[in-house]
Design brief:
The chain is mainly beta and about 375 residues long. The chain is about 5% helix and about 65% strand.
Length: about 375
Amino acid sequence: MSMRLTRTLAALALLAPASLAAQDAILTARGAAQMVSYKLTSNGTTKAVSQEVVPIAIVLPAIDRFSFDIATAWAHSAARIGGAKESSIAGLTDTQLRASYSLGEDAVILTAGVNLPTGKSTADSAQFMAAENIANDFLLFPIGTMGAGFATTGGIAVARPFGAWNLGLGASFRHSSDFAPYEYGDGTKAHYQPGDEYRARLGVDRTFGASRAALGATWSSYGDDRSAGATFNTGSRLVLQGGYETTVRNVGWSMNVWNLTRTQGHRASGQAAPMENIVNASLGASFTLAGIALSPTLETRHLTRAAVDADAVYPAQAKGSGQMETLGLGARWQAGLFQISPAATYSVGTLDRVDLTGWRGMLAVRFTP
């Protein structure tokens, strides 16, 4: 599920002119790494899940309104329950190739993309626990899946002024091929055919002097998934997002809220896949102290999940809930030709009556000649 959430959230950037990123690639080079770790403790037993990620991306300069980008990542994910042997999976993820073509003054952008299966899409019994635990919509690991097979995507985005507001509309379609997410001990594989994905996006933004406000909504609908002759569906998704930025006495302030609603789907047995809602709100500040730009943040996230009645295959499922508070601090400074940007967060909360703690660390280095 996290893979689909990641793709949905990525759509929020669909309307940005691709040519700007391409021009920036001529002038700068970037490198980054991120580490994430969570511990979930219940009745004295702790499950630890961690991930290290190094993103790899190339953005080619725009030529005659065309721009191209390639993105993948190296990731290592691990999970352990108590003193049991660690489950881990590592390597490159899938590679995304995207081409964009701009019509007019970037008012219309056509995109076409290919997901190349360079990642490890099949997990064996020693890797399955690690692969399963990073696919969590609430914890939002940077990489939700190592690989998801071959897929193609096409989309269109339109941006126009509408009075004092800027209005953006986008739509896309994704078709994925069959792949095998799990290999059994005897060497046989469980095959999985994802349903087609349809996505629509609406976004508006406006400046108010030194302030800026932005609102967005993304609706994603999925065809039925298929595996071993059975069909199932995880439900549609609606993501709402809002943000406001302003500056008061040389201190920048930002407020951001997003809400993910996953509608009821159905499992292979016919039992309902429960409706789920996650809301996240954050408050951030930015200011300069002794030549270092500092960015403290405070974030809260809440989950609610509907109860499910029992059927002939699965037992009843009680209502689910989760809450997590996160305190973070980012910094940025110039060291010669390099801009250094570390950041770290620490989280506490509960997930389905299980205590959780976690932290994230990130380091980005930008070469600016």
